[in-house]
Specification:
The complex is a heterodimer of chains A (about 70) and B (about 450). By secondary structure, chain A is an all-beta fold. Chain A has strands at about 1-5, 15, 20-25, 30, 35-40, 45, 50-55, 65, 70. Chain A has no helices and 9 strands. Chain A is globular, with a radius of gyration of 11 Å. The relative contact order of chain A is 0.36. Chain B is an alpha/beta fold. In chain B, helix 2 (about 45-60) packs parallel to helix 3 (about 85-95) and helix 7 packs across helix 10. The N and C termini of chain B lie far apart (about 70 Å). Classes of the chains: A mainly beta (about 70), B alpha/beta (about 450). Chains A and B meet through strand 3, strand 4 and strand 5 of A and helix 11, helix 12 and helix 15 of B.
């Protein structure tokens, strides 16, 4: 498995491939390797709307970091 | 005339796609409380032997009080049962009739000579006309028998009405791709069909369509409703060749039936044991994939329990005693069945490692944080994992039976749908005792008791 860390100013649930993971920003999310589309739940006050990533070669201590900025 | 009329029961088209409707696991927001203790069972194949062993395990779970919840048992906490072949009879029966199973499953299925009844149907001249049709075969007779005499002609809509708790995942094998085919609405969405109207008996017949003895179950691959599009998890998985081949082929086996309907107007299904004779792969997939029901519950779970009920035997083989190579029938039979249990132990090992690595990830973060705290890090916090649960993985099989003579007897039991009453009783008792005497099960009960006392 691979590891993803989504960073945003507010605590939000992370949506991966259009599925609500129930896990949050600033938490390391364990996920299978490959192409994924990442976005956040709640108000659409962040940019970009979606980030597409290829997740591989990460570890729990060195996760792939994906950031969203406040609009 | 009768020949011309005989046709297998067709799966009906899905006219309107509704993403959250039909026989699928409920949305995570609906199950947050029950997800804290998530119990998944995997029932293996093995004819009546597997059905009786898994029934014994259900009985033991029902006899085990849930710590801190008077009047409730561990069976009430079971969330998911994934099954193949013989195990699918027990799983489907429990999904439909819940604890009524303890009143009549033995007489309605376990103690019956299902094989003999099927043979009598086969020899009945009335059925000869039907069987002469190219669109009607032995499996359709079997389905009629199961629907009428075991499952009360229930359809999957009845399982929806029963609350989908536990959720029953009946697994068959797609003959073309060799991939697992699970009877859920998301799988039926891909073939443009409404699972709600499909009989449970036909799904169980597909799951237990043993090669040669029974013919495949056929489905129509209908055009999809206009609103339907492949899930993004599948679309992204198609880009993963060379990065994550497991995900790529998982996606490809689904996408092919949506993207190339002209090339696959029909789907033929056989025994689920051909792709995984434990029923465990479905649980692994649902844990790994972002769209998986277990993946979506990682944040809510506090305890994840997986119980694998494996009725694998070691029948005495005589092939090696003869210099003359085995004949065509032996070779054909072995070619079709030898793979069924070849990788069962590896599948168990892979599942254990997958779950164990999840736990270790959290432990690694905690250990590193401790080192940073000890050696001064200006209060830096390493991001914690979004999941934090313990895992109890329990595998039950005949090799664990302590009494050597009993173990030998169990390992030599045949794979069929007609066991003697004493053999059925022995298997039920074995299922109960294997679970009751399991150290991992003891650990689980201790954890649940401590958890309750700590509240």
């Amino acid at each position: 498995m691979e590891y993803l860390l989504v960073v945003f100013a507010d605590k939000r649930r992370v949506i991966i491939d259009e599925v609500d993971t129930g896990q949050h920003t600033d938490e390391v999310i364990e996920l299978e390797a490959g192409h994924h589309d990442i976005t956040l739940s709640g108000p659409k006050d962040f940019m970009p709307e979606i980030k597409s990533v290829v997740l591989q070669n990460s570890t729990v201590l060195n996760p792939l970091e994906v950031g969203f900025a406040k609009k | 005339m009768l020949t011309a009329c005989a046709h297998y029961a067709e799966n009906v088209p899905l006219h309107t796609y509704q993403p959250d409707s039909g026989y699928m696991y409920p949305a995570p927001l609906e199950t947050q409380e029950q997800d804290k203790l998530f119990i998944a069972l995997a029932f293996s194949g093995g004819g009546t032997r597997a059905a009786a062993l898994s029934y014994g395990v259900l009985k033991e779970l029902n006899a085990t009080p849930l710590p801190g919840n008077p009047g409730f048992t561990l069976l009430d906490e079971v969330d998911l049962i994934s099954s193949v072949s013989g195990g699918s009879f027990t799983a489907a029966y429990y999904g439909l009739f819940h604890k009524e199973i303890f009143k009549d499953f033995e007489s309605r299925f376990l103690h019956r000579d299902i094989q003999g009844e099927l043979m009598r149907k086969l020899y009945n001249p009335v059925n000869w006309f039907k069987l002469a049709s190219p669109y009607y075969s032995r499996i359709d007779l079997a389905q009629e028998l199961y629907d009428k005499t075991v499952f009360n002609s229930a359809v999957f809509e009845n399982l929806v009405q029963e609350g989908r708790h536990p959720f029953i995942a009946l697994n068959a094998t797609n003959m073309t791709t060799g991939a697992q085919f699970t009877f859920t609405q998301p799988q039926f969405d891909i073939v443009g069909s409404d699972l709600g109207q499909f009989t449970v008996g036909r799904a169980v017949a597909a799951s237990s369509a043993f090669p040669f003895l029974l013919s495949p179950v056929s489905l129509l691959n209908h055009p999809s409703p206009d609103q339907y599009a492949l899930p993004l998890d599948v679309v992204n998985g198609l880009k993963d060749f060379g990065i994550n081949n497991r995900r790529y082929f998982w996606a490809l086996n689904r996408a092919e039936y949506q993207n190339n309907k002209a090339g696959h107007p029909y789907i033929h299904l056989m025994d689920g044991g051909l792709s995984d004779n434990l029923g465990l792969r479905y649980i692994i997939d649902e844990y790994e994939c972002a769209s998986g029901l277990l993946f979506q519950r990682k944040a809510a779970m506090q305890h994840l329990v997986v119980i694998v009920v494996n009725a694998k035997t070691q029948p005495l083989e005589s092939l090696d005693r003869h210099e003359k190579p085995p004949g065509l029938m032996d070779v054909a039979y072995k070619t079709a069945t030898v793979s069924m249990d070849n990788y069962s132990f590896e599948t168990v090992q892979a599942a254990k490692e997958l779950l164990s690595n999840s736990i270790k990830a959290g432990q690694n973060v905690a250990a590193c944080q401790k080192i940073l705290d000890t050696h001064g890090s200006d209060g830096y916090r390493i991001p914690e994992t979004g999941h934090n649960f313990d895992v109890h993985f329990i595998e039950l099989n005949f090799l664990q039976v302590k009494d050597a003579a009993l173990r030998k007897k169990l390992l030599a039991l045949p794979t069929n749908f007609s066991l003697k009453p004493k053999e059925v009783q022995l298997l039920i008792d074995t299922g109960k005792s294997l679970l009751g005497e399991s150290h991992e099960f003891e650990d689980l009960l201790q954890t649940l008791s401590q958890n309750h006392e700590g509240k």
